[in-house]
């Protein structure tokens, strides 16, 4: 019900808890941020301000100069001081109330990569941590920041209206699905287990959209973002659902770790318009799925006859044959685009 999400951050800067609605504001899944350093999410210029507000006296010990603050967790834990409760002001004192603004990394399309959040809350003791000091004695509970994080700019009516339709999926770097939110399960009809069992994830993409999606996939691996991509996804009922998607790379310690895709369902007319625009600047008619550029009489090894007679899928995917190496079954690599087409149910076309 909040226009925001709940955040609990320990004195060392680890996210102890975040409500699942963090996904609606920053695009990160709750599971991906919990027990991670909060400083990986915060704009470099705002990290010191956050560190200051974590400290009971707004005066944290300085992080060692030789360690960049971007490494947040590491430099902070080395400079975190443990206090006995009697060294701290009482928990209900107004001295421990906090209200400040920080820019957080945001994977959603309507942001410039960061979203300014107002964090309002207080420092309270975080019990049950069972931490031990170097000599093995139990440490007393330490103060943690309990805050409600709300966007500085209230969302527009349009954002509130369209937010109900948008769903997000998480993928490995080769696009293999890892997770899907509740709205995605409603739109597509699959359970998370069904999505994960199917290989690279291109099995859910319409054959005439595969090369287009693969091109944007390659662009995202180079630049970090795919740009808006409109394509058809196969639902559990064997129907095609148009979506407008934007994929972003999520980095950890400077290396790409996984992909988050934000997707908005479109009506068929919108999808058709995008398809027409797309086929205008491609050297072959993708609207029908016949890639004239690759048309040839060469029969594909082991390609089932009734499927080949469809023409649509086999022709548009000629390219991908060279794209994947040979594999155990009829010479087609199952993780190639052609392999993905062959795993689809031809009745869907």
TrEMBL record:
PROSITE patterns registered for this protein in UniProt = PAS
Question: Domain PAS, which positions?
Answer: 1-61
GO biological process terms on file: xenobiotic metabolic process
Where are stretches of biased composition, namely Basic residues?
312-326
Where, subcellularly, is it found? Nucleus
Q: Does the keyword Ion transport apply?
A: no
Molecular function GO labels: nuclear receptor activity; transcription cis-regulatory region binding
Cellular component GO terms, alphabetically? aryl hydrocarbon receptor complex; nucleus
* Alphabetized UniProt keyword annotations: Activator, DNA-binding, Nucleus, Transcription, Transcription regulation
| Matches recorded under CDD domains | PAS (cd00130)
* Pfam families xrefs: PAS, PAS_3
Q: Where, if anywhere, are coiled coils annotated? A: none
Please list where the region (Disordered) is annotated: 58-88, 305-349
Q: What protein does this entry describe?
A: AHR protein
Q: Which organism is it from?
A: Psophia crepitans (common trumpeter)
* Gene expressing this chain: Ahr_2
